């Protein structure tokens, strides 16, 4: 059994402790905005925040996560898509197929928490998620737009 | 206890929503509803009658436009809706969309036409009839208002969902007359707007499908959940052509959550469990015996040797012949020759293959991310053994397609073959990334021998392009072959084909293909054969220009006097990149152009190569002339994205064969482009009008040759076999 704090709610799940957090979030908790892409922490589609740190949940055993640790998924980033990144993403119409975008947004949100005004080099170094549709330049532009809004606000 | 009890069920009842229009238009449903997002579920009111097959208008003025093609990121949902809305004359802000089900299409004599979403055909193959559908609906809406008012329809006009009768000053709205319009006879003919009068087509409107992709609400096939659903993980023989002999189910049957271990077909076994992770864990522990079959020793070296032998084989299919290339080469002042090679690629969609099937003795339903709902329907019928009229497909937006999910419905077939072994239980099959990489429909492998003859003045007088390699059609659509020849191999190289004809007038030209088909399944991969062909032609043109001592742009232009549209895009990128100016210190440029999927495209690249060989692609300028442009913002996005696809293949991508199977099983070995390597992309749209060209694919083809030519300018190194990662640029 595992007790997890996800998007501010404590969840109790019956699960093998070796199960990756990704599959607990998707299959036991039922939050499917966090995606499965590779299973080996290469693509970043499964990115969630664990205590504010962007974490690739497909390789993190649920048994290694404490109840005291705050897990945030894309569904918990904001209640109404009002996070500056979500607003910038909408304004720039960033997604194409959209499958990688939850992970992109979560990685970007963690970046902005750490580095409110990221440089191009910061973005290139920190956002290593894979997008096969090729949204990278718009992802970059949206991160900068959101950073600008956050700084201005 | 079982983990099954933990699967949440409540979200289904909260968000119940009938997918597509199956229920509304005469399809059927077994009662399982798909959660498609709270936002849309809230907007779903009582059913309204359709005005015609393409348009439903609700009393609240919502305009539902039916889209037969599939949205996989390329923006076709928005573009096709713009085409219908333009002729419908509706208020764009009220537009929403839905997929009519493939079963409904069958029942209604294919009223929505083709569902195939590939070959950059979504808009160019259907613009006429979807616009006519919108125009017909407008005509019926106006007729309904005119009848109610007792005035001639010709005195009424419609704009932004408002119908007005100027002589009497009366107005009404689409929502108010839609019910009556549905009972009007459809017009026998409609007149479409002139392009100059378009107000929705040609505008950079926002996509209709963005909001749910920002907060996790968009439900992909991999996300589906139904009451009582089980999850399947599958493993097929990793060796091409191999078979499943046996497996020891007893070893895993007691593992947590495991419900069934089943033979899928001759090649694959599946574990079905309460959760997918349990199914995958048990499958990994399952002892399996394979018959690896006749290809067990096949290697990439074998395949390369097979293709190499085709480079000078006497027999070849001729795709384009002008003059007498062989004689002209024999008499040329100088002959230049070079061999090129391009490896297998995997589509590597971010969402792995998946499908959810529910089979009973009476019905088969499949929820599937598909580029061709009609293909999925046919596969459901075949795999279930039920009449097609008893099958239904529920389409979902795709987490990437790129050609993998159209012709190839192997994953949908597997889902049905598994689910029919547990009737009445919905089963979601999801492939691991490894399964996805090992069982692709690979971008076919080809090589080319390019032989060019220059006269004493450095003019190209003869060109022989010999392609050797795999045919997609021979493997997957033999009915498309022409006397044994695969015309797809000659994309962009033909004399007159409006899909893509060669941009050069070479007086003596021979383009031919020695077909060599290794036992590796090929498929349509975004850009298809245009990708390789553009590398071969455009890199070799660069070689010839340098051999002739002529600027690469000037050399090309000599051959393009009667190719104004090819020339226009090439000259546009050259002008924008500043071809006639000196680049910044250490920066070098390359050019490429081609025609494919009905559009003219070109690219210019700026790169630098550091002393240690590190490549930086700074900037790419792209140009496209697709004739008419439906949504220029979407075109820009597609062009930008196409460079990621093309450059991923150029820089890193290859699937290599060892012991009869692919060596690359995940993104750690099948590298793709990430943010840090992405150049700035500027897109020039040059819509010359009068034709409808494709957008999603053609610019992929010019990405690699433009960059490779720039690398030559930077280093003097000619890279003729890809990917680039195998070459030192130092």
TrEMBL record, chain A:
Chain segments annotated as coiled-coil in the UniProt record: none
UniProt keyword Iron-sulfur, yes or no: yes
Domain (2Fe-2S ferredoxin-type): residue spans on this chain: 1-77
Entries under InterPro entries matching the protein: 2Fe-2S-bd, 2Fe-2S-bd_dom_sf, 2Fe-2S_ferredoxin-like_sf, 2Fe-2S_ferredoxin-type, 2Fe2S_fd_BS, Beta-grasp_dom_sf, Diverse_Oxidoreductases
Keywords carried by this UniProt record: 2Fe-2S, Iron, Iron-sulfur, Metal-binding, Oxidoreductase
Entry-linked Gene3D superfamilies: 3.10.20.30, [2Fe-2S]-binding domain
The UniProt record lists the keyword Iron-sulfur: yes
Gene Ontology MF: a single term: 2 iron, 2 sulfur cluster binding
Record's protein name: (2Fe-2S)-binding protein
UniProtKB/TrEMBL annotation, chain B:
Aldehyde oxidase/xanthine dehydrogenase a/b hammerhead domain boundaries: 215-294
Highest taxon of source: Bacteria
GO MF, one annotated term: oxidoreductase activity
Any matching Pfam family: MoCoBD_2
PANTHER family in the record: ALDEHYDE DEHYDROGENASE
Name this protein carries in UniProt: Xanthine dehydrogenase family protein molybdopterin-binding subunit
């Amino acid at each position: 059994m595992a007790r997890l704090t996800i998007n501010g709610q404590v969840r109790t799940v019956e699960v093998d402790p070796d199960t990756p957090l990704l599959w607990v979030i998707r299959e036991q908790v039922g939050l499917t905005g966090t995606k499965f892409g590779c299973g080996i922490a290469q693509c970043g589609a499964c990115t969630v925040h664990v205590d504010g740190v962007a974490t690739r949940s497909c390789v993190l055993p649920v048994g290694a996560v404490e109840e005291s640790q705050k897990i945030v998924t894309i569904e918990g980033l904001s209640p109404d898509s009002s996070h500056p990144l979500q607003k910038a993403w909408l304004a720039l119409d960033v997604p194409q197929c959209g499958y990688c975008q939850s992970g992109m947004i979560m990685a970007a949100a963690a970046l902005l928490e750490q580095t409110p005004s990221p440089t191009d080099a910061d973005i290139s170094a920190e956002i290593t998620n894979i997008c096969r549709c090729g949204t990278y330049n718009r992802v970059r532009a949206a991160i900068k737009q959101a950073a600008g809004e956050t700084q201005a606000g | 206890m079982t983990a099954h009890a933990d699967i949440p069920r409540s979200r289904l009842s909260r968000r119940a929503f009938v997918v597509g229009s199956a229920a509304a238009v005469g399809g059927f449903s077994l009662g399982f509803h798909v959660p498609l997002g709270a936002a849309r579920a809230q907007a779903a009111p009582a059913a309204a009658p359709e005005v015609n097959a393409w348009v439903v208008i609700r009393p609240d003025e919502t305009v539902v436009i039916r889209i037969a093609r599939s949205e996989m990121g390329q923006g076709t949902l928005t573009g096709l809706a713009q085409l219908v809305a333009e002729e419908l004359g509706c208020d764009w802000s009220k537009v929403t969309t839905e997929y009519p089900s493939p079963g409904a299409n069958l029942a209604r004599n294919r009223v929505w036409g083709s569902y195939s979403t590939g070959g950059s055909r979504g808009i160019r193959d259907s613009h006429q009839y979807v616009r006519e559908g919108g125009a017909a609906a407008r005509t019926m809406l106006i007729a309904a208002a005119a009848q109610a008012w007792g005035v001639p329809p010709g005195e009424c006009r419609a704009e932004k969902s408002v119908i007005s009768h100027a002589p009497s000053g009366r107005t009404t709205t689409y929502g108010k007359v839609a019910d009556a319009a549905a009972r009007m006879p459809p017009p026998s003919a409609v007149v479409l707007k002139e392009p100059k009068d378009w107000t929705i087509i040609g505008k950079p409107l926002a996509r209709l499908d963005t909001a749910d992709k920002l907060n996790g609400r968009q439900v992909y096939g991999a996300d589906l959940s139904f009451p009582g659903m089980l999850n399947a993980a599958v493993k097929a023989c990793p060796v091409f052509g191999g078979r499943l002999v046996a497996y020891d189910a007893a070893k895993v049957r007691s593992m947590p959550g495991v419900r069934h271990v089943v033979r899928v077909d001759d090649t694959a076994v599946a574990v079905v469990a309460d959760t997918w992770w349990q199914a995958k864990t048990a499958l990994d522990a399952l002892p399996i015996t394979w018959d690896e079959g006749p290809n067990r020793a096949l290697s990439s070296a074998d395949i390369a040797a097979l293709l190499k032998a085709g480079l000078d084989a006497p027999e070849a299919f001729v795709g384009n012949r002008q003059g007498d290339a062989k004689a002209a080469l024999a008499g040329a002042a100088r002959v230049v020759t070079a061999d090129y090679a391009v490896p297998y690629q995997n589509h590597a969609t971010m969402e792995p293959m998946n499908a959810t099937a529910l089979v009973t003795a009476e019905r088969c339903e499949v929820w599937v991310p598909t580029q061709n709902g009609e293909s999925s329907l046919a596969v459901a019928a075949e795999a279930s053994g039920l009449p097609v009229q008893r099958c239904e497909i529920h389409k979902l937006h795709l987490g990437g397609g790129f050609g993998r999910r159209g012709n190839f419905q192997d994953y949908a077939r597997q889902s049905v073959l598994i689910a029919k072994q547990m009737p009445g239980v919905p089963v979601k099959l999801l492939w691991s990334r490894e399964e996805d990489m090992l069982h692709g429909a690979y971008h076919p492998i080809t090589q080319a021998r390019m032989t060019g003859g220059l006269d004493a003045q450095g003019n190209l007088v003869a060109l022989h392009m010999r392609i050797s390699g795999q045919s997609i059609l021979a493997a997957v659509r033999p009915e498309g072959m022409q006397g044994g020849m695969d015309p797809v191999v000659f994309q962009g190289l033909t004399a007159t084909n409006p899909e893509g004809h060669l941009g050069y007038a070479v007086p003596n030209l021979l383009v031919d293909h020695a077909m060599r088909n290794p036992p590796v399944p090929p498929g349509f991969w975004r850009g298809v054969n245009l990708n390789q062909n553009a590398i071969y032609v455009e890199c070799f043109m660069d070689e010839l220009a340098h051999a002739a001592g002529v600027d690469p742009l000037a050399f090309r232009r000599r051959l393009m006097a009667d190719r104004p549209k090819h020339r226009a895009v090439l000259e546009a990128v050259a002008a924008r990149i500043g071809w006639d100016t000196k680049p910044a210190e250490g920066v070098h440029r390359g050019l490429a152009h081609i025609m494919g999927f009905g559009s003219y495209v070109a690219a210019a690249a700026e790169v630098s190569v550091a002393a240690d060989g590190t490549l930086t692609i700074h900037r790419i300028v792209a140009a496209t002339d697709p004739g008419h442009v439906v949504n220029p913002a979407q075109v820009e996005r597609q062009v930008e994205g196409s460079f990621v696809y093309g450059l991923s293949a150029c820089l890193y991508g290859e699937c290599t064969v060892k012991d009869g199977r692919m060596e690359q099983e995940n993104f750690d070995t099948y590298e793709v482009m990430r943010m840090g390597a992405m150049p700035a992309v500027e897109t020039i749209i040059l819509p010359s009008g009068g034709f409808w060209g494709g957008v999603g694919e053609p610019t992929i083809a010019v990405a690699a040759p433009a960059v490779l030519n720039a690398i030559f300018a930077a280093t003097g190194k000619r890279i003729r076999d890809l990917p680039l990662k195998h070459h030192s640029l130092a």
